[in-house]
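Marked as duplicate of an earlier ticket. Keeping the data here for the record.
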Amino acid sequence: MYTPKLHEEKRLDVLHQLIKDYPLGTLVVMGQGELVANAIPFYLDAGRGEFGTLVAHISRANPLWELPESDISALVIFQGPQAYISPAWYPSKAEHGKAVPTWNYVMVQASGKPRFIQDRAWLLAHVEELTSTHEQGRAQPWLVTDAPEDFIERLLKGIVGIEIPLKKIVGKWKVSKDRPEVDKVGIIDGLKESGKREVATMVDLVAAHTDA
């Protein structure tokens, strides 16, 4: 990833926090002569390995897990907040007009060699950990044990686990660091006025595929 020094983020705790906040990563590998990308929710085991270990699972029907492990290097991309930045928000534009639109974004790219896991006990522990992580904070969090045992057993047989001990992790924080302070204030005000549409957009998408 092209990362000018100005936008480089090296603090491991900051990089890890973005993964925790935006855990749906894009896993990219070279498979049978072509690049293969899968969107997968990951759990980060921050204390395991030099840079942490990414943990996830995929459907057994996904041919990814059948690739020879010795030949695979994986890149996982975690996309954080991103937004269009209008030059109209820059007070300095009124002075000299030397401003153009840009895009701000925060991103982490992590890489390592994946290994695939089919052990039933590992898979159950992983699913329980992943579930508890994302259900925490809810008034009535859903537990794996809420579902019938035979149902869970069938589902466990249909997935394969993935662990990726990270060998490299890089972050890019393109967040208007190059603008003067007056323009940064203008950007903040402009973003506040624009509002966020992510939740409303998802509601619309779900509603569009609902018969009710």
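See parent ticket for discussion. The CA atoms of residues 64 and 208 lie 31 Å apart.
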